[in-house]
Structure formats: structure tokens, C-alpha cells
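Anyone have C-alpha cells for Holo-[acyl-carrier-protein] synthase? Sequence:
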Amino acid sequence: MIYGIGTDLCDIRRIAASMARRGDRFAEKVLGPNEILVFRARRARVEARGLSYLATRFSAKEAFSKAIGLGMHMPMTWRACEILNAPSGKPEIRLHGALADWFTERGLKAHVTVTDEQDYASSFVVVEALDPSKELRP
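Reply: yep, here.
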């Protein structure tokens, strides 16, 4: 059963402007510990690849926050939600701390897809209730 759906479109040029103003602090605010490692590696190879990675993660976290119905309110935080790639390349959502507990208590499972082009990154998230009898709304 579908619990929630979220989508987001992010202008990569705005992410670049934020990085120019705030430097790495912006990426460190948005990205979790595993994501920041991937971001730094991609940016070291090609600056634009790092920015695209940051934008897709920003977009996916926005979409996830919409799908769970919390927006950016506790326990949803930028760093508690990571979008990491499985060995196959498929993006997956990994949650930490209070957000992971909140999500598990409700018996939820999330599916995410991300895409980007030169100027835009987009994401789509579907959250399903595995056991509707456990479903607790925010």
C-alpha cells in the first residue's frame, strides 16, 4: 500500500551558487557521512560531477521528506537520510538515528530514483507501508 509519493526538481546552478557562497559547509550540511565521501571523490575528478551528485541528493531528500509527510521537520534531517548507490548502481535510501527508528516503527519501505541533466536534477520517491496495520501517520 502506498504511504506517500514525493518529487523534486533542483536547479544545479542554484546548488553551484550556494557552494560558491558557503563553500564545503553547504555540502556538509546536506550530505551524510557516506555521501560526503562520494561527493568529494566525484568533485576531485570533475567539478560538475560533484555538483550534480550534490544536487541529486538534495533533490532526493526533498522528495523523501514530502513522501513521508514531514517536510524538513524532526526527525527528518538532511544528514539522517542518505541516498547511496547499491553495487548495481541503483539508488537506495539509508536512514540513521531517530529518522530510521520513526520509519521502522511505521513499517515503511522507500524507493527512489534520481536523474540529472546539465542544469537540473530531479528525483521521485515512493514510500510504501509494508504492513498497513502498523501505519502511523506523522
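The helical segments are 12-22, 24-30, 33-45, 47-67, 97-105.
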